[in-house]
């Protein structure tokens, strides 16, 4: 039986640094599965190749599409689902894996990024999420905030950078009003550097952690493991 190709689909970005960071994750997954699973990459938006182009190139093999997205919102439930269903209707063998989060290993990584950013006793954490018009994605982010609070022992609120409320800037302002004198530590729940990371850094927190993928260095083991696990679960 042919081993399904792992098709890693990220959102896409106009940031060269962000694109390189995501490519590094795909390379790390490729290395982890070397000799056992073919790995290809594509994008929901901004970059090429897009998902239909990727699936067309893989029409002669079975495929597991793994979204490199932290929560399951419109892109997972609608865009990617429609792409997969269209390919299946045309006779391809394609399965759609789950989003990367929520996952305890993402919380491990968030905790490490916060520590690197100088999280201190008494700080209030605001989780900076991209945001989505899909309530299921918002629920995923809120769950991640709950897990991070339980892990760190710090109060954690969630703020969004687009397409959902409350906004990150509003949450930071509210935390300052509710906890006068406390530092606000913004935890970046973004997969890579780029425009949203810049917005998070400018939202008024006292410190902002780096995104999950760094501009340099190897991809975090946690993310590599999650991508591989999502692939295997959907095979």
Automatic annotation (TrEMBL):
Recorded GO molecular functions are:
lyase activity; metal ion binding
Classification via Pfam families: CbiX (PF01903)
> Which keywords does the record carry?
Lyase, Metal-binding
Please indicate if the UniProt record lists DNA repair as a keyword: no
Record InterPro entries: CbiX-like, Sirohydro_Cobaltochel/CbiX
Name the domain of life. Answer: Bacteria
Gene3D superfamilies assigned to the protein according to its UniProt record, in alphabetical order: 3.40.50.1400
The protein in question is named: Cobalamin biosynthesis protein CbiX
Its organism's taxonomic lineage begins at: Bacteria, Bacillati, Actinomycetota, Actinomycetes, Micrococcales
